[in-house]
What we know:
Two copies of one chain form a homodimer. Chain A is α/β, with parallel strands linked by helices. The first copy, chain A, has three domains: about 230 residues, Aldehyde Dehydrogenase, Chain A, domain 1, CATH 3.40.605.10; about 210 residues, Aldehyde Dehydrogenase, Chain A, domain 2, CATH 3.40.309; about 160 residues, Hotdog Thioesterase (Thiol Ester Dehydrase, Chain A, Roll), CATH 3.10.129. Helix content of chain A is about 35%, strand content about 25%. Chain A has a seven-stranded mixed beta sheet, with helices on both faces. In chain A, strands 24, 25, 26, 27, 28 and 29 form a six-stranded antiparallel beta sheet that branches. In chain A, α3 packs across α4 and α4 runs parallel beside α5. Chains A and B meet through β6, α13, β20, β23 and α15 of A and β6, α13, β20, β23 and α15 of B. β26 of chain A pairs antiparallel with β26 of chain B, so a sheet runs across the interface.
Amino acid sequence: MKLQNFVENHWVEGSDEGKPLASAIDGRTIAAISSKGVEFGAMLDYARRVGGSNLQKYTFHDRAHMLKALAQHLMEHKKEFYALSTETGATKGDSWIDIDGGISTLFVYSSKGRREMPNDKVYLDGTPERISRDGTFTAQHIFTPRQGAAVHINAYNFPCWGMLEKLAPALLAGVPAIVKPASSTAYLTELMVRRIIEAEILPIGALQLICGSVGDLFEHLNCQDVVAFTGSKGTAEMLQQHPQVIAESVHFTAETDSLNSSILGPDATPETPEFDLFVKEVVREMTVKAGQKCTAIRRVIAPAAVSGDLVRALSEALGRIRIGHPANKDVDMGALVSHDQRDEVRERITMLGSEADVVFGNTDDFDIIDADAKKGAFFEPTLLHCERPLTAKAVHSVEAFGPVSTVLPYENLDEAIELSRLGGGSLASSIVTNDNKVARKLVLGTAAWHGRMVVINRHCAAESTGHGSPLPHLVHGGPGRAGGGEELGGIRGALHYMQRSAIQGSPETLAAIGNRWIRGGVEIESDIHPFRKTFEQLKLGDTVNTKEREISLADIDHFAEFTGDTFYAHMDEQTAAKNPFFEGRVAHGYLIVSFAAGLFVDPDFGPVLANYGVDELRFAQPVNFGDALKVRLTCKQKTLRDGSGYGEVRWDTEITNQNSEIVATYDVLTMVATDEEWANVSA
Amino acid sequence: MKLQNFVENHWVEGSDEGKPLASAIDGRTIAAISSKGVEFGAMLDYARRVGGSNLQKYTFHDRAHMLKALAQHLMEHKKEFYALSTETGATKGDSWIDIDGGISTLFVYSSKGRREMPNDKVYLDGTPERISRDGTFTAQHIFTPRQGAAVHINAYNFPCWGMLEKLAPALLAGVPAIVKPASSTAYLTELMVRRIIEAEILPIGALQLICGSVGDLFEHLNCQDVVAFTGSKGTAEMLQQHPQVIAESVHFTAETDSLNSSILGPDATPETPEFDLFVKEVVREMTVKAGQKCTAIRRVIAPAAVSGDLVRALSEALGRIRIGHPANKDVDMGALVSHDQRDEVRERITMLGSEADVVFGNTDDFDIIDADAKKGAFFEPTLLHCERPLTAKAVHSVEAFGPVSTVLPYENLDEAIELSRLGGGSLASSIVTNDNKVARKLVLGTAAWHGRMVVINRHCAAESTGHGSPLPHLVHGGPGRAGGGEELGGIRGALHYMQRSAIQGSPETLAAIGNRWIRGGVEIESDIHPFRKTFEQLKLGDTVNTKEREISLADIDHFAEFTGDTFYAHMDEQTAAKNPFFEGRVAHGYLIVSFAAGLFVDPDFGPVLANYGVDELRFAQPVNFGDALKVRLTCKQKTLRDGSGYGEVRWDTEITNQNSEIVATYDVLTMVATDEEWANVSA
Lengths: 683, 683
């Protein structure tokens, strides 16, 4: 099996025989890898020219639909991914994180793309900024897709998830990707890319694959490209300093080494549920993927008073871990990815040994189920204990990328904070405590060093996703040693592939660019009430200006009696006047908006089907009896819900009084039928 | 006058005699500058240890109040800033941008900090993410201040604004700053820092100043520090590649060279107002600050058909510019900052000359008012014209940092887009057109290359702040050649000085960390209705669970008649059933929330003073007559308005029906009196 590269919409083989890739379980060669002869500059150009323009013909919702279709398609091929994944040393549970975890990232991005982004090509960032007195000149931040390629350089430990977690946000943003998996497990990535390409769900050019070296690709980067790197800090630094990256200010994000810590709270003594939860969490993080997880717990920070108990409990639990062939159902932990990796882990343990004692593992004398220790890269879980962690260096800087952790005792919370910080920046951190004051102190003391923090207690443990699981909803990345990058985090992850620009101009111009009407823009009035228009017929700016309605004292009395809202400010002139905001009895806010609806609603059966909500209602000043109100209702934003027969329409609403003073502003949210749906419904 | 450094709360002089700084107007030495002997590592340590912890004792609102006090204090000293600013070659108008513009940045950040950030130490980013089925485990993104120093390296052209636009967001975030102004105009920065320090508004350690070289400061940076650089791309690249910056993944933002362009739309022919606006804008951008603005228009992109007219009109207008002593009221344009700068500009014009012809200026034969051409760094505005801009290189890459622009003709919009992109990334771009379709096409085609874009037409021109003015509300920075950084943009600018972390845990734990109650958290019920509690007495989680109220058909009929909202879905069983969302007549949404208020309101005079709004009201399912509704109202978030006597309290509100199904959810916003205010009001 010789892995191929997917270049400019064609599968091509490297021109030399390639580097052999060995199975983690028995060392036999299962593939060869080479990208020799690939023209990397042309790949970048193809991505920008063909992939980018193809992707950007679509809206965010269109691309979100593609992600869902892709996820569904990959679900159908799960079996072969799982089978091949075994060769990487992964158990079924490990593969689940990689394969199902990766596919679920596509589902989440699909869902978030449709719920949190517009069905449009421009993403509006925040609301208009008021920058002129009369509002004839205003401003809006927008995000547009970078007009370049997303170069994704992935680590060996998650050949599927590692690709998909970067791919989902890039594609949603509209940016084509060039994926370069780490060699040792690239065969699984290549298989998944084949299935993706075969599905013909993505437009041509949206995805290319490099199996092997990236050659001179970096020489061809420009200011519109994005590099997202996962791997060692050393490699990240080298790439980040590449003259072209520097010259073009290429957007570069890195997710690298991480001496992640977990802190056991001082309240969590051995008899508490939290102590047991902590032991379980540490053991799980040490053994899942044989500890080859960039988020795994490397530093176990625990009260000195219980560190003896903890070491005993962890050692016992680690002693129960069954190591062997990952396909065997009795096996808890498979193999490291390669012999090289095993040698490196052992070497790192030796470095740690200068400051910490091995208290469990690191022997060659352990049982292996169904496999040959000499052929496979099996490794015993290894626990160390460092007596003076505050003055130690190696335990805070040497990452043994395998089933290895070190216990670091602390005397008080300030010490625990200091130990956590000594990691120099991490992807993930956890705190196990049932004391929320302790949680707050530890989080505020260490959050600036961590991209993600999990607080586990007896109340959330059953549903907790655990210390080491990045979620597509949450940011992934960390400062300092962790690379200083950020990925995922829902829509935030997509925005990293886009450029934020502040746009200034007239309300009309900004509405034309962002497809959202802005106060001060032209109001289109006609004889046809906008509630009589279908989704397609409605235009931004379509407006009703209602007649006036006076609010009487009787109205206020009546509304109070009817609703039961007899708040004194509505009922009692004298007491109301004692309220610093009022001069006497005022109308209920809900009365004002109810009357407003009475004014703007067109009552007959029509394409506007339902009011599903209200946003940002603000009462600007009190309404007293005798005041006469009128309403302006303007079509502000339209979001088509593809395939549903309707779209969401947001109406900018302003209630004014007889002096043209603004009384209330809000957005009314409605569902409006499409032409087709309206024809059906009204038939 | 020897400039001093402000180091660890003391003014200290460099240990050597320093480098002399010359007046831009007459070349006489007005100060000497040196930072020799300063211990830069100790400065960083002092900032982190003393400045950071002092600043972070306060809330965002506290620090926002400091910014306002600082702005007011600096306003009182404006006169001496203006006087000294003249020496930099700045006219009164130029100084206004620098001095008043800088101070207004403090005002805007103060206002935004109080309106858009909590009166707390943690900034919540978005709403909780649903990551578990039962909601016992949830997540919230937060921002906390980086635990390091903000190193601000500023350019010579805006010695005041350049400092303040970086200082305001850093201080608001809670991060202490070390300011290093460019030498040639550092005397003005030093004066302003003296006034800031004397005011004793900022806590000790919040601000330090380096006048001169930064020595070995970069050797001491760590992963919590931030470097914000403004200056040449070359220097930025050198600093960005510093081994310590790379090793520690120091957050680095740069704002550098920029070949900003302005595009004249094809509709804007010589007889249109837009043509005249364009001429005015280009001339203004060329001559304000004698063109020494990183946002100035360097590339004038215009339809080939009118480029002759345009060159004539620009030349005429440039011919009317009066050059001379900036303090003279008749002078339109002052001097460049130094003779070196003048030499550099001339050299750059020579480079441009290989591809473009000088069509105005660049002579030594021009009138100078009230000054000596030999002593001062005066320079004539210079316009070039490039006949084949699509194949040219220099006009898109050589920045002549003075009153210099080049006209680049285009044949069609695609060419205009291509020319704009050839700048390789800019801070600012403008488009002058009265055709919003042209505006949309140009913005979508070029936004990914620009941090800010201005569209000018006859409707917004009077209130337009112009092509070259960064505003504190809007992001400032751009991709590629512009450095790839981002500053300002309101709160966005402060967030660059903070670390985003995803926090996972139980709703109770997250509420303890973020001071915002989360659905699923503990509801505290007592005999005392929460409306009877003052701001201080209210606790997050304080809850009313109301009794039930049944909605009758008569209620719906009555509400319709009373409000006038006779929408068919409320009135007509048969037609309502045709609506895909309903099975028959449904209650009005406003009726539901009005009845809800009737249920949860405690009517008597009490500390809850007023309902000022509603957020995120969503109707989850229809309510039919016969349904019985009840309400849960829970204290969700408290924001004290210092000095006002009240605070804002946000209530999480949920309406359920007799089957415990959610009917509606929303946030009710109220003003609640403090203990003191309530004692006054109720006295």
